[in-house]
Every structure is written in structure tokens, then in C-alpha cells.
Queue: 4 jobs
Job 1
Amino acid sequence: MTTSEDAYRVLVLDDDPDIAEYTRTVLERRGGCQVLSLNDPRLAVAALEDFQPDVVVTDIEMPGMSGLEVLALMREAQPGLPVIVMTAHVSIDYAVRALRSQADEFLTKPISHPELISIVRRLASQWRSRREADLELDRAAEVQRGLLPRQLVALDGYQLDGDCTPARAVGGDFFDWYPVSDGAAFTVADVMGKGIGAAIIAATVRSVLRSGAGGPDLGQVMSVADSSLEPDLERAGAFVTLFHARLNAALGEVRYVDAGHGLSLVVRAAGGTKRLATTSFPLGSGFGGGWREHILTLLPGDTLVSVSDGVLDLFDGTLASLDEVERIARSASSARDIVDALLERASHGAPDDVTVVVLRRDL
């Protein structure tokens, strides 16, 4: 049985009180809808906020404001809300005008009860599904924002900076950093998936990695993370690529593990660049084991840059794009300048999430 809370909400606009009342009666008694009927179209936009309809049914010819004018205002106030336009006129001109105004359906009077009810239910169901999906994305975006570090790690003699720009409301990328006893740890990761599920997995990855902050070997940390995440990743059909590192600030030593990521490079102040190619599988790939810790030394002026694969799409989409990242790193005066240069390119339209973390040792 449909409750008043579950019933589709329909806003009916018609300057003819008899037609408006007739439409309301049909939709309420035969369609099980909750209906608000208005004879003055100028009240329609305010009703969107107060009544929160799932569908709007409007006449096309009304004094003071036409149905097409109402439709334009509704599209501005609440994009995507389904609108059904009704008219007694059947000319091609009216139909074209309605469709160009982005009406979802164009119906000519008299309208059969079953047809109207069927269309209202279909459009209302689609609208609610879209809204639920949007709410899920909003929740996922909130989770993702909560994963990002809230402040920089203060490191004498080093600059550590980064940022993340999702291509959609929420993406699968995240980065993290936090102080450890001898310096700092930092991560760039990409969960293969979107929505709340990917955001929850990302939160779990972050938590597991942080819990292993005091571990002596990063390879072992990866093994623990893979074991902890395996059930969730298997259910979601997802996997995680990541670059995770720890800096010993006094020695300039960076210990790191790369799990299927392969998008980090060291730009040497003295010349030359080394890409830190991956030697291990992603977490959740089903090929567990083999996460080996590597060590490199940052000399004064050297820069370590780790990016997500969305950065490649800012250029030609191949690994050759890392040459452009190197060029930006060499010309930048600070770690933040490198991050800003890449995010500026992303601001012009990035097809995928863009995440960047930069560690530079001061001269």
C-alpha cells in the first residue's frame, strides 16, 4: 500500500479551474499521487520549494505566463525536474516549441487517464532515482573530503604539498600525509570505482595505512592492507593502486612501495629524472604478495612528484605525459607551484580525477 510519504508528488498548473480539478482528481484517486493544483502559473516557482514535486503537469496556454515560460523558469530553478506540457492545440509549432523548451512529454487534450497516469509514474520514478543517486554522490563526496589532510606537515628543509580535483562530484582518488617520528608519510591512491562504495574503500585504505605508520617495513604494511581490504574489494569488484612513502628528514631518505601505480618520478636538481616504475600488483588484484620496499635519497633541490592517472589525460594520455610533469617541476619555484600548475590545466576540463603530491627538498 502506498503511503502519503511514498506517493508521487505532482504539481498541476492550469488556468481553467475545472480542468485543474479534474486532473488532480484523476491523479489522486486513480494514480495514487499527492497533487497540488494551481490556477496561477506565477505561483509555480515558489511551489517547487514548498511542495517539492516529482513531476509538473502544465497547460501551455495561460494568462499572465505561458506554460513554456513557466518551464523555462523551472529549468533554471530545478534542472532536470520532469515537466509534462498539455495543450488543446495540436499544431507542429506548439509541439516543437514545447520540445525545444525541454519538456519531457507533450500531450494533447483530451488526455486518456491511463496514458497520463503511466507517464506521470514513469517520470516521477526516474526523477526519484536520479535524486537518490545524487544524494549518494553527495554523501560520498563528504566522505572523500574528510579523507584529505586538513593541514600541511611542517618539515624543516622540505616542502610537502598536494591537492585533488575530482572530475565529478566524487572520484576514486585520494591523497594523505601525516607526521611520523623521523619525518612524514604520504600516499597517493586511486580506487577503481565511484560513489559511496569507492569512498568507503578509500577511507578504509587510509585508516589501514595510518595504523601501520610505525611498522618497520612498508611491504608488510601493504600485505596487511591487502588482507584487510580483500573482502570489501572482492564484493565491490574493485582494486586500489597506490604509492605510499615515508621520509626520514634528517637523512633525506625516502622509503616507498608502489602497488600498481607507477606514476611517480624524482626530478634531480643536478639533472636527470627517474620514474619510479611499479614492481607490485594493486591491492585487491587477486595476485597478493610481492610488495617490496624501495629506498631513494633526495638531495638538496630534488623533487619527488606522485600523480594520479588523470594527470596523464591533461596531456596526451600516455606515460610520455610525465615529461611534461618533469618540465613543470623544473620550472617551478616551489612544491605548491607544481601543484597549482597541474590543477590549473585540470580546471579547463579534466576527464578524470586529478591528484598531485609533491615533496621537494630545499637547496
Job 2
Amino acid sequence: MPIEKGILCGISTEGPDSYKETELLANTASVRILETIIQSKTTPDAAYFIGKGKVDEIRKRSEEIDANVIIFNNNLRPNQQRNLEELINKKIVDRCMLILDIFARHARTTEGKLQVELAQLVYLLPRLSGKGKELSQLGGGIGTRGPGETKLEVDKRNIRDRIEFLKGKLEVVRAHRKVMREGRKAKGFLNATLVGYTNSGKSTLLNLLTKSNVLAENKLFSTLDPTTRKLYLSSKSSILLTDTVGFIRNLPAELVTSFRATLEEIEYSDIIIMVLDASRLDLEVQLEAVHRELRELKVLEKPIITVLNKADLVQKIRIPRLKNDYPDAIFISAKESMDIPSLISKISLISNELLTKS
């Protein structure tokens, strides 16, 4: 797949970790960031997000280094995106479009593709300025891909009908998932759900705990579809363990709404296992991003086990501080099978408490 060349830009209200994360997202979407331009500005400009002088600077710089895409570290309003495209005359991609593009690449199942396409069309609709505007005007690549590398439907007259069609199909998916959940509940199974920041190692942990072979890649958003496997806690007891899509800071609202059928797996779980990447320095940002989504789903009252994964990659000098800051967390390494018995023990303890109550 051809690599596009881009400039990453934004304003100074976002910290350096945020820009590093967006660059990783860009790389995942096959865009190589040639340069990062940050404006010292506390409030976004209503028309361009950044100041008009900075827009001119980016236009000139993009021509000098032959960048074909400008990526913003924030979400843009439709009018800001249109204004920027007119002045810079390059493809403008905001954080939301970037994440949607990655989801489109990684959607493998019918359910995943339906959810991604719905999110893309909901995002795209207010950004089409006229009837039948073609994305081919932007060329190929990022922002033009639908699920499975199909071309996105961009006829404004048909998008609304397509959105309603997709919503109907996803209602069928939700109904099917509900039947499956009720069937598992009728058999007496408790369900624990792995949630967490993207690329925190949830799929690797699922494979380790359940001796499965689910796809686990060192990529952002490699898991889109829920995967459920049986976890044996002892020779006499077991629960079901479900892996879910990862969260990220400023997760697009379009995705949260479109992935309702998937996120319901979290709502109906008995235990939540929240997995964070302990090796990253922005651990508190990860925690807040995950908590925000769990709060939206109204599941914070459920039993939550906090797991700090990738402990093998944490500098030794940081470990005492982390253990002090997160006294109830379990420090593990799914890759190195480190301290997994402590996690299984905790899951088993909560499972027994829940069964006793019921």
C-alpha cells in the first residue's frame, strides 16, 4: 500500500504525548509524518481552527516538502475543514477521520464493516458541500477508504438512505447478540470483559488466559469485534472472557454510537477487567479516557479489576511510584506471562462473591 506524506498540526493546548499518539495513528494509516507544526494558541479559531497566518505557513511548507495530506491533532468542524481545504489545496484529515480510516482497514467481519461504514457516513454527511460530491477529487488513500478497501459512498442523495439501512442491519446484530448473551446466562456463565486503551495488550492477555489464538498485533485498533472464550479459573470453575475494541482519548462520537452493538457486551458483563499500558508515561490520560467511556456506558458500578500490563517494559525506578499511585492495580506482563496467577486469583475471588450473592 503506498505511503502518503503528511504534516501534523494543531494548537498548543494538547501535550506532546497527544501529538506522538496522533503520529502513531497516522503511521497505522500509512501516512509518514514529515513535519509537525504546532501553533501557540489557547483557543481554536472559529474559521480555520488555527490562525490564518499559520494556515498560509502550512500551505507553503506542504509545497516545499511535497506533503499531500495535512493531519490535525484535533477534531474539526465541517466549516473549518472546508475552509482549510480551500486555502491549502491539500487533503485535510482530522483526528476523527484518521481513526475512522484505521477502523475501515481493520474491519474484518460483516458486523465490524457495518459499524465502521455507519460511523464513516455519519461523519461524512455534514461535510459534503453539494449533491454527488466525489471523494475522487481528493485522490485515493486516507479518508476515501470504506471497510475492506471499498470506495466510500459519497452521493449525498443516497447517504441518508444507506445510513438508515445500516442502522436496521445493526439492530438485527444487537438482537442476535442479546440472544447469545441470554443463552450464556441461562447456562449459569458469568462474563468478564476486557476493556482498555488501544494497544494495551488486551488480545494478548485473552490468548494467554484462555489458551486461544486470537489475532494480537502491536497496532492501534487491531481488535474491532468482540471475541469470547472460556477462562478456566480452576478444575471446577470457569467464566467467559470477552475482548472488546480499545478506547483512545477523544474517541469520535460517531464511533461510540455506531459500535453500540459491540459496546453492549461491556454493559451486560459481570466483571470489567480494565487493561492499561504501564510502560507509557501518560498512564493517567489512558485511565481518564477509558473511565470516560465507561461512565458514558453507565458501568462504573460494576466490579472493575485494574490491570497495568507491559510491566516488563517499565523502568525499575518508576515501579514503586506506580504501585503507590495505583495500590489496587495488578501489575502483569501478558507477553512474558508475569504475575498472571495474581490476576486469575482476583477474577476468581470476585466471581465467587457474585455467585454467592446470586
Job 3
Amino acid sequence: MSGKKKLRVMIAGGGTGGHLYPGIALAQEFQKRWSSRIMFVGTAYGIENKVLPKHPYEFKRIWMRGLQRKLSLANLIFPLRLVVSLVQCTFLILTFKPNVVIGTGGYVSGPALMMAITFRIPTVIQEQNSYPGLVNRLLGKWVSQVHVMFEESIPYFKGQSDIFVSGNPVRGGFNLVNKKAALKKLNLQEDKLTLFVFGGSQGAHAINQAVLNSIEELKELPGLQILWATGPHDSKIVTDKCGADPGISNHEFIEDMASAYAAADFVLCRSGATTLAEIAICGLPAILVPYPYSAGGHQEFNAKARETTGAAIMILEKSLNKETLVSTISDFSNNPERRESMSKAAVRLAKPNAAGDIAVKIKPLLKNIG
């Protein structure tokens, strides 16, 4: 590697796991391929502030925060936040000297990409959703490359010639966890079917409430147990009602998703792109409840696409009542042939090499990297 410099990669994105975890997957891929130094840029408000300190990467926080859907003081000071964040990113770029800056979504990626473009540093957008986020739509034509998960995203990046349908990067370690060990770690029984209920890094109140309303009927389904990641907002109410039940393993947050997926036989969850990429790699049949307020209705689009392929079924949140939920879970529970068919359909959709494909496409942008 004589004459080759250590690769320096800045990855900006966060707020939710859907924006953070693809960045971690890319960081793992870069370090696997090249001698790399990785810096993440995030905020003190998103999931990255909880997750990244546990990883071996540099993590710098900026003051950026997204616009709120309602009138608030935070919206009034947004212009000030943006200016301060641009100054902070200027300092980080001048001191870190990245070879490439990658934005994985969320408002925090905007200042980092904007300053990298200003300094003529190669820039890349990795877009997970069918309907791209505001920052990515605004900056898409100015960056060096764009990588998307859905072909349907391409029209939103007018003026960008280097756009690739690369899939969604997924962290390493999935499919490597032993099911028996995972069940033991999560206090679950080996001889029961496991439904994994989760709603992303913040949980999903509507899903939690629907399961709570149906819990007595679900407990009567023979051979079924529930692994439940409630999120912080509903953790107490779920624990108060179900904490002592041996057939329910509830957690506020599960960081070891590889073990959770390994323990699961099927899942009940939202239909964000990162979640779909992970459950596809793990071959998990899914009951998808799309978040009804996702930008451009992309979660419903995602769920419909998975339902069409036979990998999942979709229940709209407005239809998520006790009767529908219990009937659907009962059908999954009592029909192993259907679960097997859906599992195979999910695996066919997986793109386990997405991070590697993106790294290969990015390499021509890098200088003096072997």
C-alpha cells in the first residue's frame, strides 16, 4: 500500500435508525476494503447520539434539527441552526479533510453535504425511500453520485446523471446469529413460534396500542410468544400490563437486532426501507403497517410493493383493529407453508451486497486509494 493514503470518510445522517444504520453499514464496508478513518456527523437529538458512542467511529454533533410539523420555537430558530451548523461543518471538513462526504438522510446531512460541495469534495447521497427526503431532493443534482433503493426514486433527481439503483446497505452480522442462542438471550422459549413486534427506533404507538388491545386474544393462540420492542414512549404501559407474562419478552429498545431477527419467525412492523432491507436478508415473513404520515406516502408504497411480491401483507393503520390483527396473526401462526413461501419471497428481494456495490461505485471518486 506504499504511496496510498488512509481513506477518510465523513458520513452525515441520522435522526432515525432508517437514516443511521445504512451509514454504519457503509462504514463497515469501507473499513473492510480499505484502511479507513470514519467520521459520523449527527446531532444530540437523534438515535445516533445513543448508538454511535458504542461504535469505533469518530462522532461529531452539530446543532442542526429538522422543521417541526407544528408551529414551534424550534422552527423560528431554524435559520440560526442552519447557519451555525454550516459553520460547524466547515470546521469539521477543514480539520478532518475527508476524501468523500456521504449523506444518508435527515436534516443533519444537509450542512455537511452543502459545505463539501462548496469545497469541491466528492459527495454522495444514499437514499433509502421511494420518495426522497427534502434535503436529498434539493441537493441531488449538485452531488457527485446518488444511490437509491427504488427505481421510482430516479425522477426526483433531475439533472443527476450518476444515479444508481444499489439497494439499501445493511449492517453486517445478520444471518450469523444462532436461533437457539438468540432465543435464550431474549428470554424466549425454543418450542414456541415467535412474533417480533417493533416500530423502529422510536417505536410505533399505533402498533403498540393495537397489540395491547388484542393481547388477551393473542395469548390464547397456541404455541405463540411475542418479542416486543416498544420504544421509549410506550415502554411503561406495556411493562405494566405484560411485564410478568412469560409468553411476552418486552424491551424498550433492542440494539442487537441480529439476535431479535434470528429469534423471530415472523414480524409485525412499519415499512421503512431499512427495516424492509433487514427483514429481507433474514427471510422473515412480515405484517406491515405503513406509517400514514411518511413523506409522499412512501411507506405505503413500500408495503404494497412487498405485498405484491408475496413477501408480506399490508394492513393500513386505519384498519388496524383487534379483529383484523388477531385474525392475521392467527393465520400466520397456523400456516407454516404460507410462512415458508413468504420467507422465500423475502430472500429473493434481498440485496446483501448493497454496501459493497456502493463502495465500488464510489471508488473512482477517491484519489490515492488502493
Job 4
Amino acid sequence: MGTWCPLPLRHLSNTASLTGHHRVHAVGGRGVVRSSASKADSSPSAKGLLDDLRKEVDARDTVPLQEVAGGVVCLGKFDALHLGHRALAERAATIGHMFMLSFSNMAAVLGWEPRLPLVASCHRPAVLRQWASVCGGIAPREVLLDFRSVRSLSPAAFVDLLADQLAVKGIVAGDNYRFGYKAAGDAAQLQSLGAARGLAVAIVGSVQDCGPACAPGGIPLADRKISSTRVREALQRGDLQCVEQLLGRRHQLAVGLPGSSVNIASYAHLKLPRLNFLNEPPCLGTYEALLSIIATGRPQQQISRRNENGLTQESDGLDGLELGLARVRIDVENLGIDFHDVGKVEQLEHRIRTSSAPQLLSLEFVSDQR
């Protein structure tokens, strides 16, 4: 099945284009580079597509609140989905069916400066599926609680909400978790209040990185707690080895690629504006990354295909397209991509020209900046 990734209203640009610096013509199986010119499609149809995409909701793949009844909720922000967050899910899996509960509208209510998330919404389900291997074979699901509905609650009232309205049977949180109005409650209070309501409460100690990648010049052990802040700081200095150590996986970047606004005919160099980034990139520099394309939008129809056993399977027609390794350059305005394989460019051209759904470019970084 394909991946549905609703695009955020504020980050999508209609200026995506393949630059005219490198037109490639296949000659004897090799690419000959010639100069040509190209402009982004600014037609009414392209503008209409982008307007439609801006109406999509920037939301995680979440379950309704009522589904957490009888389950165990992990409490936190979960921006990075790092190894510390995974430890909460591991502990929750020993108690019952686990959910990652965080708050929506928190930044707006508290007046925090808007910034890109560390993990794009479209990548989050795959990360959680990876965690199934350490969570009893079951992937955690995410659930969002509107921060506006709980901001004024005392610590006791918040625990009452979890016990009565959400009907959870257990709570898992980190040892530095704060909750309630003005963060009045701490982990010890969460444990005592939960126990008083008959809830199973587990407090998980901070997870620290033990490898050398995140310790330039030597970081004291007490300062090596894994956190979303450290992930963001490592991205800002282009230290992707450290990011991988904190996340337990390589960093991925999602970029909106509105199909009808891209002139892709046989080009080996793709340029996309930073406004199309859906999550936090590494700092300015040149990197190697594995590229793939997935489609956005709900599937409109099913397509019948035969698998290797000759059996008919139903597909939504939004399968991923692997584009292989490429060199990517991030500057103050754009993301530039030099494809190593001309054949992959031709596949990308075909995909964008034939798909009715807007596409999403996914980059998995495999090297630090150069």
C-alpha cells in the first residue's frame, strides 16, 4: 500500500523545478550533459493543485482518543522519536497495548516560535513499525490530545482525565516528565496520583548515548542524555553520525514535490526550494542520500497486480519508487540533487508525468556534510 502524507499548509512552494543546467541525452548507455533552460510550471492547473494541497491538514497518522481505553499511554512530546522515546514504548509494551500520547496545538497556545518538526508526519508510521521488534511485535500508535483542553488542569485533574475520560489502565513517562498547569507535577507525583486511581504507572530513567559520535571533545556522561534538543543541535552542525546514534536510525528529510509544477524531462539535476521541506534538514552542505518517491493523497482507485506466485493482489497504485544514491546540496534557498543514475531520472520523470497524485521526495542521509 502507498503512504498517505497530508502536506502542511505553510511549507509548500509552487516554484519546484528541475534546473536547466544539465539536460542528459542517453548515448551508448551513458549520459551526455548539454545546456538547456527550464522554468517551473506556473499554469493555472499547477496553482490549483498547490492550492488543494495547502488545504490538507498537517497531521500525524493518529488513532481516535477513545481507542486508548484499556491501553497504556506513554506521555511526552515525541518530536524526534529518538531512542529515549523508544524506551518508553518498550516499557509500556510489558504492561499492555501501548499508545504514544502527545499534545496538539501546544506551540500555538504557548506562543513558541514556529519551526519544522524533526520527523515528517509521513515518516512517523514507518519509524513506529520499526519499534515493533522491541515492543512485543506490535507497533505503537500515536494519539493526540488538544492542549487547549488540558492546559489549565492541575496535576490531579490531568490524571483523573486519563483514568476517567480516556479510561487508560497504565501510564509510562520519563523521569523528567512535567505535567499539569505551569508544569506543576513531576514524575514522582504522577506515580503517586496514578497509583491512587488504580493505574499502573512506570517511570523510565533517561537514556544516554554511549558511542563516540556525539562526544566531540568529550561530553561528561551526565550531559549525554538523549533528547530532541540534542538531535536538533546535531542536525544544525551537520553531524549525521551523532543524529543516527541518538535516533537509532538514519535521519530522513521529506520534501513536497508537486508534480505539475516540475519540468523533469531528462534532467540529471533537480532543484527544489527549502519552502517545500516538511521537516528539519541538516545544516548547509553537501551530503550523500538515498532517495525515494512516495505519493500523497488518499488512493482513488484500486489497481490489480499479480505477485510472484501468480495471485492477484489489490494495490492503491501509490507504491514507492526507489531512486538510489544521489549527491545533495543544501543552501540557504534550495535543495540541489545530482543523480548518479540517469535511468533513475527517467523513472522519476515517468512517475511524475503519469501519477494523478502529488509526489513526495524522501531523502535518507548516509553521510555527514562535506
